[in-house]
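Milestone M4 deliverable, item 7.
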Amino acid sequence: MSASEIPAYKNESLSFEERAKDLVSRMTLDEKVSQMIYNAPAIPRLGIPSYNWWNEALHGVARGGTATIFPQAIGLAATFDEDLIYKVAEVISTEARAKYHEAQRKGDRDIYKGLTFWSPNINIFRDPRWGRGQETYGEDPYLTGRLGVAFIKGLQGNDKKYLKAAACAKHFAVHSGPETERHHFNAIVSKKDLFETYLPAFSECVKEAKVEAVMGAYNRVNGEPCCGSETLLKKILREEWKFKGHVVSDCWAICDFHKNHKVTNSAPESAALAVKNGCDLNCGNTYPSLLVAHKEGLIDEKKIDEAVTRLMITRMKLGMFDDQSKVPYSSIPYEMCDCDEHRKFSLEVAKRSMVLLKNENNILPLDKNKIKSIAVIGPNANNREVLKGNYCGTASRYTTVLEGIIETVNEGTRVYYSEGCHLYKEKVEGLAAPKDRFAEAISVAERADVVVMCLGLDPTIEGEEMNNEYGNGDKNDLNLPGLQQELLEAVYSTGKPIILVLLSGSALAISWADEHIPAIIQAWYPGAEGGKAVAGLIFGEFSPSGRLPVTFYRTTEELPDFRDYSMMNRTYRYMQNEALYPFGYGLSYTKFEYGDIDISNTCINAGENLKCSVTVKNVGNWESYEVVQLYLRDVEGSTKLPRWQLKGIKVVYLKPGEEKKVSFLLTPRHMSMINDEGKRILEPGRFEVYIGGSQPDRRSIELTGSQVSKTRFEVWGAAMELEY
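Output delivered:
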């Protein structure tokens, strides 16, 4: 067949847009609408195979069988390392391709078998009670943006023509609970908070990372349902940010328009509203009603054409209509999935995610040559679920904390174990009396030289909207659930030294533990190899370097109302009370010193960049990573501003005695502020720069025993508005 006889959509020399438009022009209206549902059927006459758009890759290829499980997203965020997150996403997309092509060879086109991944979740973790906060990169817009961009680039690959996989930034926008109300909730947000906190990470993922897809949220924002919002989807996403990819609804969010939000009266009206405002793909079953909507004049076929064209462009970018020998990723062998190299990397990432919160009198690391017996106690000590986090795949093997400790200690060291208590119930066995494992826990503690207590949450009680006897996915408070606090105090009463390991996807209020327990580790949901990482930290196989991507508050009572989306008194940027453990905080086994900050100029004109650099030296005895953080404070802003904001992260690896110069570039965008009208304004005035291993707040300095370096500069000239 000559080139002129080949249908344009099959002509690989044409652009994807030309090909997609030609393909859509050959479809009937029924066929077009059928392609706008997540489980799109085949159109045999055009050679279009069936395709299920729904796949997940939050911290590993999820829900589709065996794959490497990395630490949950909140744990990845604790690394503060863009390069590491990029490499994690590269591994995920390699396994995604390996699994996809093998499934294709077997004729398996089921859900969770495609190349369109509804990850990452870049919502801001504004309230520690939100169950899905574990899926995010924490509470800070800058950190979330940098890690989101890195993840998307790693997932989508760097080929000039084809995508390795298609990423999706979700949930657009202003979405962070409550889970029980998400199908009818209206998030009221000011323009300032919208553009200062809730949108920046999405903007970066669209403009810088060129994310292929964006998923709308369930809730309304200022009265508009997100998946049909003219403000969010048309004006901001498509017109202002020039987004070219496709938009997908959250699952069964479109039917919420008429059933719960009550902004429409019927399924055809809901479908028409969503498509007219730019939502191309329906995860759900409402879009078949587009046929009725079209018949009733609620939507014209041109809008449907635009949506289907965008969807076909994505499939073409993934190489689904092309000669597979020309698609660079199609030759990735199935053997790459869950291979030794990837599992080892998962362990390294887990180590990097661990945050050492307390280490009184350097009790850690433990010397395994001096320990004859150790007691491992708690509902999370031998709990596989706590390794996984939500939206996870299936590992070929798992190592719990108990198993990791057993593997690590010397031969002959006795490891005692007791569950201690249920995760949240008053007893472990249904017919037993309350506290049925307390006596055993105390008995094993009494026989041990040291106790490791594994407490916290797990993804069966903390996560997406759920219904169980504990709750709905969100936390009612920040306390340890069930009898865990009482168990901790009972074991403490034995007088044995305790290492507390918290496994959770969010912050807990552990003021009693901070006061009484000598060592505390925040281990998150650390992935399939997580138990090895915890044991490695306890016994000094590496120096911890993780930092908190969220604030640990002292009490539940100090939090604003969960339903209040104002940022006032929320997160490190606006909170008024002193944190128990601040955002950006984490201890090391070594010590770092920071020199004076060298800046390119102390006075600059508005619109100019500023270079900052500092020398970091390892003055301790351990080689270790150090997370170097730059915070910027606008001293004279004309509106209410954060006290300071993270504006730079760099991770360095230093041996004892080694030093490195770390440099940052501050741009006008970094120096700008969002005013009450939601405009990005660069104002003249004084600024303060802080660079160190933590925030410059009093509590961080008290906990670390280290100062941060500080300098000042001035911006001269007239105020100017910057592009958002």
